[in-house]
Model the fold of this input.
Amino acid sequence: MSIQTHYRSCNLCEAICGLEIQTDNGSIVDIKGDAQDPLSRGHICPKAFALKDLHEDPDRLHYPIRKTDSGWQQISWKDALDDIAEKLCSIQDKYGQNAVGIYLGNPNVHNLGSMSLMPMMIKSLKTKNKFSATSVDQLPHMFASYFMFGHQFLIPIPDIDRTKYMLILGANPLVSNGSLMTVPDVRNRLKNIMNKGGKVVVIDPRKTETARIASDHCFIQPGADVYFLLSILYQIINVHKMSPGRLAEFTHNLDELESIVKSFPPEATAHITGIDAETVKTIAAEFCNAESAVCYGRTGVCTQEFGGTVHWLINVINIVTGNFDREGGAMFTSPAVDILQQPSSIGHFDVWRSRVKNLPEFGGELPAVTLADEILTDGDGQIKAMLTVAGNPVLSVPNGGKLDPALESLDFMVSIDFYVNETTRHADIILPPVHNLLTSHYDLIFHTLAVRNTANYSKPLFKKNPGSKFDWEIYLDLAYRISKIRKRPINKMMYYMSKMFGPEWLIAAGLKRGSSKLSLNKLKKNPHGIDLGPLQPSFPHRLFTKDKKINLLPKILVGDLKRVQETMANRPSMNGKLTLIGRRQLRSNNSWMHNCDSLMSGRNRFNVLLNHSDAEKRQIQDGQNVRVSSPHFQFDLKAKLTDEMMPGVISIPHGWGHDSDGIQLSTASAQPGGNINNLASGENIDLLTGNADVHLRDIDISLI
Ligand SMILES: Nc1nc2c(c(=O)[nH]1)N[C@H]1C(S)=C(S)[C@@H](COP(=O)(O)OP(=O)(O)OC[C@H]3O[C@@H](n4cnc5c(=O)[nH]c(N)nc54)[C@H](O)[C@@H]3O)O[C@H]1N2
Ligand SMILES: Nc1nc2c(c(=O)[nH]1)N[C@H]1C(S)=C(S)[C@@H](COP(=O)(O)OP(=O)(O)OC[C@H]3O[C@@H](n4cnc5c(=O)[nH]c(N)nc54)[C@H](O)[C@@H]3O)O[C@H]1N2
Ligand code: SF4
Ligand SMILES: [Mo]
Done:
């Protein structure tokens, strides 16, 4: 035995937990939490151990494959890359630049190579048809930050370790391990708020794992958060008075708020939200009276009809109560490598629109819900070829049922992914990079979104085989080939330095420019990571607005209240239908990691949660097989009766539906489930931001 111990941060989810991994001669023997990691303090979840399954998975791809009449065939990297560059360019020559579409999936934001060097490849294609998981996820946060603080990534983070009152809407950090709030060990961090005499209040149509440990929980009608928040704000302004403190000096339009909220007293919104006026008044009072407080919302309040406006209101509540940019409130990180300093990262909105549905771009991306339209609708600018990187939009975007055949109809498709999944199976060529443990890692994104400033560099656990490639090598190789065909100059310094040193030289340069003055060498010598302390007040200096002031009432956001009011007056009746919301599970990661034995073993967790009263009306009993249907699709699964669901609302996890041939489902214990995004029409979006609204309001459920 020659056991070696390695330390690295896990980059499967946003918590970036420190791992202590033991290997013996190339095999992983043990994975546990690194107790000395200053952020995660030894915490891990079951997915960390599944890194071993990922490493050993016989279904994971190791070399490029091409689809042929007799199935997938291995090809050389050179042939694959030459062919892809040539095909993408010739399709653009024939049909125009925008004929190549791009979809970027979630794991890219967890991947150093993608965050630093993928832009070279993307830019070389010069297409406006770019899509990503952002518009099925956090776009509303970015939208609100862009318009209020002048930068799409200047995202407020709850100062969870010091707050006395945390109001959580549409997030379940106990299962997700936190999002746009890198917060490993969140269970203990939340418990600490309560142990210190503070409160945690959860607003969610489901009494979630987080709600169960919180001080209080209120059910809310899916999509009604905007009304709840307007009523909270009404109370703050009319009863408790605004107390922005030092923020008043650099916040525009504070005095105009009162007229904006005047039509939303708690009595006027209770029938829509399902939260009675007294409860709203109590929450507003508690929030205002707490020594410090923070309101935080996440995917449940992003992927809905008014996601953008909800996130604006959350910021407004934190600002006008003085719980912004101060201890215990919503704060901002000072990351050792500050991606916000790149001028190109600031963002933009509505510089161009999608061809078919005329939807605005944000930050250079169009709403993912309209990707299928852009492929299927004939005409100038139609997408004829696709490049997907680390994504599975067939399962993750409403409506997957339309996207699936759409991808099959393309002239050419290439996917960069180490699995054949429901999306990549449509590709002509799949390029697999090496997986997480074989790469070095510095988390450019999640240090920027963390509840504490830390910095952590991870060395690769194993050396990759000479015949395999890092993600960033694939990006550089494709960018080089495409630029050569196009006779366009490539950024030589970026290309050659990166070819030679990988993305690490960019991290070294970023650290040097950063305020903490760390060096890559120092990080390498500190494998547990370096603590840079709690979040510090940084406004107005950190603001990116030209006048260094907070734009409290951006016209575009205030303007959306018209839609809010119209919808309030014309809520459609449910006609006996149910509303379907999604749910995440600890042993699952969106649509992937379902091939990991250690996660999939045990009972089948793919079920529909419904309230006893809804079950009784339909004569459904616990554990029975039921059919869930919408006008677009249906599938069968087991019913679990529970009072954790709000009456009229049911919950099914997303990311499932692995029922096609030849995909990553060799594991005997794997649970195929059904694709909830197939139930969607793909028409539901937040009209302001273009983010997907994943709530489905036309759902039937019946015994089979
Ligand atoms: N109904 C409903 N739909 C949702 C959601 C919901 O709550 N409800 N949530 C949405 C959210 S928040 C998100 S983020 C999206 C996720 O949606 P996507 O990003 O489209 O899908 P993932 O399941 O994350 O896709 C992961 C793919 O990336 C590959 N992969 C993993 N790591 C790497 C890597 O390092 N390099 C490469 N090249 N490939 C890699 C995996 O093999 C897998 O095929 O789903 C969204 N869809
Ligand atoms: N184990 C695990 N961890 C993950 C992931 C995973 O798939 N598995 N995915 C990762 C990704 S990509 C992301 S983006 C994060 C997401 O992180 P979170 O946002 O914390 O995750 P969710 O569990 O989707 O929490 C959303 C909550 O919103 C509630 N909700 C739904 N609709 C509404 C509504 O209209 N109003 C309100 N108030 N609540 C609503 C749901 O019931 C749910 O409890 O998690 C990340 N972490
Ligand atoms: S919580 Fe996230 S980062 Fe931590 S071990 Fe689990 S998957 Fe990895
Ligand atoms: Mo996400």
